[in-house]
Amino acid sequence: MASVGVMTNPDDPLGLRDDAPLLDGWLSYRAMGPVPFGTPGHKQRLDLVGTVVRDDIPLYGGVDTIRQQAGAIAEADRRLARAWGADWGRISVGGSTHGNQTLMLALCRPGDTVVVTRTLHRSLLLGMVLAGVTPVWVRPDVDPTTGLPTHVPVERVAQALAVHPEAKAVFLVEPTYVGTVSDVAAHATVAHSHGIPLVVDQAWGAYFGFHPDLPRHAIQAGADALVTSAHKTLPAYTQAALVVARTGRIDADRLDRAFDATATTSPSGTIAASADAARALMERDGERLLGHLLRIVDHARGRLREVPGLVLLDDVVDPAVIVDRAKLAINVSGTGATGLAIEEDLVAQGMPVELADRDTVGPIISVNDDQDTVDAFVDGVIASVERQRTEPRPVLPSISWTVEPQVVLSPREAYFAAHETVSAETAIGQVSAELVAPYPPGIPVLAPGERITAAAVAGLRAAMADGTQVRYAADPTLDTLQVVATS
Ligand SMILES: Cc1ncc(COP(=O)(O)O)c(C=O)c1O
To answer: What integer pLDDT is reported at residue 6 of this predicted model?
Structure first.
C-alpha cells in the first residue's frame, strides 16, 4: 500500500487531483462548503440522518455545475478513453450492469443475433431482453482438477459464426470470475474477419494492462469495447464502472444514446470522482502498486501450496490458458473442508470473502491490501481447513460452468410472454420465463426463452443443497418455476 508522507493532504494523499478533473471538482466543492438549493435534500448536513450522507456530492450541481460548464465530465471521459487506448469512454455510476446494457443496446437492434459466452453475467442477459436480441451460446472449457472455467476456445466462436453469419457481435467475459482469460486477441481476429465487433465484459479485470505481468486489457488485445467495474478491484466507490470503446466498428452516437438511456439522470459525483481518481492512479502509479499486489499474492500462493489438499487453479490449469496472477482461486475439495464453512470462519473473523462455494474460495486481493491483511486471510483459511479437515471429496463442477442451454424463444419474447407457475418437475421440457442463477457467480442457469432441462433443475438443487444461494427465481425454494404459458 502507498505510504503517506508527513506533508501530504489527507483528502488527496497521492496528489491525484491535477490528473483527475472529477476528483478536483469534488474536492473543490467540498472545500467551498456551499449552502445548496438543489438536490440532494440532505444538503450535506448531518443533523438528521447522520454521517451516512457526509460524502455524497452530486455530479451535476456539485462536482461540475448543473449545466456542466466546467467541462470536467467530458475531460474525465476523454482521459478515461485515452488511458485504455480507446477513443470513446464514459464513467458510469451504475456498475458494469449499466455498461453491459449500454453495449448491448448500442450494438444491436431487435431481431439481431449475437454470439455470447455462457459465463455471462445476468446484466448482459437482461441487456438482451432490452435490445430484443437472440443469443448463440458458446461455453467455456472447464478445468478437470478444480471444476472451474478456463477459457472460451476460439474455434468454438469461429464455428458459431460459421453457422450464424448473421451475428452482429461477439460478447465475452474476460477474465472469468476465477481469473482465467481466453485468447482475446485471437477472438478479435475471428470477430473482425466476420466484420463484427468483439465486446468484452472485463468486470473483474479493471487493472489488466497496467503491469507487464498481468494480462493485457481487452482493448490492447484488439477488442472493440470493454466494460469494467472500477469498484470491484480498484480503490473506487461501490457502483463505479468504466466503459470504453474504439469507434471503428461501433457507432459513438449510439454508444452515447444507449449509455444515457440506461443511466440515472442524477449520478453520484462521489462515485464518479472516485472512478476518475482510480483511473488516474492506475495511469500514474499502476505498475508500482500492481507490482506490490503481485508480490503479496505470490507470497500467499506459496503459503497455500504448502497445505496438503489445497489446489490453486493457476498451478493446475492448462499452461496455454492465460491467468490473472493477481487472483487466487483455491480449490479445497482435497482437504474435505467446504468453501462455505471456510467463508463462515472468515466472516466470524471480520474477513468476508468474495467467492465461496462448496469446492472453491476466491478472495479479492487489491492494491489496497498489504502483506499483513493477506497473511491474516491466509492464516484464516489454513486454520479453517485444519479445523474441518476430513476425507477428500471429488470435485463437482458447478452447473454455472456446465449448463447446456437450448434456446427456444428470444430472451425478450419469453420475458414478456404470459407465464404460469408449475412444479419444477412439470417445468422440465417447458420454456423458462424467468432467470435463475446461483450467486455467486450470478451466471444464469435458467434464462428466459430456454428449455428447462432436468440437468439444470438438478444442478440448481445441488447448488442449494451445498449452501449456495440461488437468486432471482420467483419461488426461492425452486419447488415451482415460471414457464411460458402454452395456451
Ligand atoms: C462478469 C460480470 N459482469 C458484470 C457484473 C455486474 O457488475 P456490477 O456489480 O458492477 O454492476 C458482474 C457482477 O458481479 C460480473 O460478475
So the answer is: 60
- Cα torsion 392, 142, 330, 343 to 10°: value is -80
Q: How many CB atoms lie within 10 A of CB 269?
A: 26
Q: Which atom of ligand 1 is nearest to the CA of 241?
A: 10
Query: Using one digit for the tens of pLDDT, what is the confidence trace for 67-79?
Result: 888 799 999 999 9
Place of cell 482521459: 79
What are the residue ranges in the chain where pLDDT is below 50? 1-4
Closest to 99 (Cα-Cα) out of 268, 244, 270, 238: 244
Q: What's the confidence (pLDDT) of residue 437?
A: 94
Residue 135 preceded by cis peptide, ω within 30: no
> Is this structure's pTM higher than 0.85?
yes
Ligand 1 atom at shortest distance from the alpha carbon of 232? 10
Give residue ranges with CB within 6 A of ligand 1: 95-97, 100, 121, 123, 173, 177, 201, 203, 229, 241, 442
- Which H or E run contains 283? helix 269-305
| 406 & 446 share domain | yes
Comparing CA positions, the residue from 29, 5, 14 lying closest to residue 273 is 29
Residue 226's closest CA among 361, 356, 81? Answer: 81
Burial 273-308 (b: 16+ CB within 10 A, else e): bbbbbbbbbbbeebeebbebbbebbeebbeebeebe
- Domain end, chosen from 323, 353, 388, is at 388
Ligand 1 probe mutation, 97, 264, 435, most atoms within 8 A of CB: 97
Number of domains in the chain: 2
Q: Are residues 326 and 362 in the same domain?
A: yes
